[in-house]
């Protein structure tokens, strides 16, 4: 890994942390504010899964949709048969789905960001232009990823420090993926492994958004708060447009 590529990966990791800083900006959050964060997070998770992750996998492996379903099944199994046997303290019980939402989102995000770092290094080893394109695509969602995971954690636990540390964890995961890509040789089949992980992550994102976050939003029966779901989707497309419009194109 060259020093330049290391800086790119470090910048991508810091983008996750920057996303988490958003939670620290606002001093006090109302219940409606917390539910609005859930709605935004759900919109962004679904957008990333449906518009980015699934098409990326199916473009190269049309039969890998089974791993999307596997991601949904695994997180459902965890919620029903594993998480319910652990106790995290009274502060996490004010939402019935808090443990599965936080754990599922963290698992999905950590896998996702791990292969962000992995793909940056691997693409630059193949071709500089490809590396720049992959880096641009990764940076597109790094800040939203940090914002999403910190929003989910904070909306359930109402602890800014833990919410911010969740975003920091994504940055660390990005660096870890880059290190693994440097260690592995191109002949180890890491491309297929990355595709499986991306599909698995898509399934986790879909489950967390639809089974954990949106039901909590719908319980409040507040149309204004619920409308933030559409804002999350709009933010996703807006960020895509900004990158496509202002970033340089390499061929």
Protein model, in words:
- It is globular, with a radius of gyration of 18 Å.
- α1 (about 5-25) packs antiparallel against α4 (about 100-125), α1 (about 5-25) runs parallel beside α5 and α4 runs antiparallel to α5.
- The longest helix has 30 residues, at about 130-155.
- It has one domain.
- Residues about 85-95 have low confidence and may be disordered.
- It is mostly helical.
- The chain is built from nine helices and no strands.
- The two termini are about 20 Å apart.
Kindly, what is the distance between the CA atoms of the first and last residues, rounded to a whole number of angstroms? 22 Å
Helix/strand class: mainly alpha
The average pLDDT value, as a whole number, equals 78
Order of helices and strands: HHHHHHHHH
Strand content: under 5%
Low-confidence stretches: 85-96
Q: Share of helix among residues?
A: over 70%
Helix segment count?
A: 9
């Amino acid at each position: 890994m060259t020093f330049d590529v290391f800086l790119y990966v470090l910048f991508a990791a810091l983008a996750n942390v920057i996303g988490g800083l958003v939670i620290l900006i606002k001093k006090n959050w109302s219940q409606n504010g917390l539910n609005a964060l859930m709605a935004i997070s759900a919109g962004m998770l679904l957008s990333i899964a449906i518009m980015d992750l699934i098409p990326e996998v199916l473009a190269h492996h049309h039969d890998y949709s089974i791993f999307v379903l596997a991601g949904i099944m695994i997180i459902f199994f965890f919620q029903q048969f594993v998480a319910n046997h652990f106790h995290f303290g009274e502060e996490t019980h004010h939402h019935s789905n808090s443990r599965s939402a936080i754990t599922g989102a963290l698992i999905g995000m950590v896998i996702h960001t791990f292969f962000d770092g992995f793909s940056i290094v691997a693409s630059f080893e193949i071709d500089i232009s490809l590396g720049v394109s992959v880096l641009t695509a990764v940076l597109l969602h790094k800040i939203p990823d940090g914002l999403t995971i910190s929003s989910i954690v904070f909306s359930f636990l109402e602890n800014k420090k833990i919410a911010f540390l969740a975003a920091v964890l994504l940055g660390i995961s990005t660096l870890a993926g880059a290190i693994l890509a440097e260690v592995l040789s191109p002949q180890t089949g890491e491309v297929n492994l990355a595709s499986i992980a991306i599909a698995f992550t898509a399934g986790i994102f879909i489950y967390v958004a639809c089974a954990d976050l949106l039901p909590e939003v719908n319980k409040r029966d507040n149309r204004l708060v619920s409308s933030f779901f559409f804002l999350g989707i709009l933010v996703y497309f807006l960020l895509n447009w900004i990158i496509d419009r202002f970033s340089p194109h390499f061929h």
